Task: structure prediction
Amino acid sequence: MKQILVIKFGALGDFVLAMGPFRAIRAHHPGAQITLLTTPAFAAMAQACGYFDAVWTFGRPAKSDLTGNWRLFRALRGGGFERVYDLQTSTRSSFYRNFMRGAEWSGIARGCSHPHANPGRDRMHTLDRQAEQLAMAGITPVAPPDLSWAQPDMAHFNLPPPGSYILLVPGGSAHRPAKRWPAPHYGELAARLRDRGYTCLILGSGVELALADEIEAMCPSAVSFIDRTSFMDIIVLARGAKAAIGNDTGPMHLIAAAGCPSLALFSGASDPALCAPRGPDVTIIRREPLTALAVDEVASHLKFL
Result:
């Protein structure tokens, strides 16, 4: 059985965008044993999607972690991989080619057999860049992400009826606050949506609890789902949502790819041409600074209001 290795670490948005390439690799190698090298955060999704026969979650040990690096070296050297698809294409992942014995390599590692030989690759959207990389390795077509495999049990959430709730994603990278639309703006928008009969569900991680508190203070009917959802829960929540509004952050990629009408808010700190969520109904608003984006303008893009 042919042994194939795929390398993809994160962040979340990049991992979601790689779902299309993952599926294309699986279709191109239907009888192969395909292993994903990733990190623990994405193990559940990688195992549930059905594209991989094995998922290794020790793909990014710290330089000081001698035991972890030795384990990685032994796994890559002993894996018997005939071809590697490096979808991370970082300095770190390219270095891993030094651990392999003659494997074909798709990526940007020096001297690799199937290089992504486009000098403008860093000016391409992530999904388009990976699709072109795979095309140069003989894999076409690459479809957008398909998340239909996610089917977690949602009964314990006691959700509002489908179509009656809106997802809000007010968080984002803690060290890049310029990428966040102010929480009071989300609170004002949630109050408007409440007046039109919609319930707002607030998604995020524990460090964003204060943002949810600010929104709930302005709209007490809003419900905080902070730290209550897995990635696959978010996908299913998105399927039943009327719409989603959120910043340039990972959960918006899950929501958009799930097919939910999505309004993604970008500042000048990131470029939607390179990293915007992809899905059947995605609208981008970009403003610099993002604090200058008025609630009225965001509401005007919600077609159902």
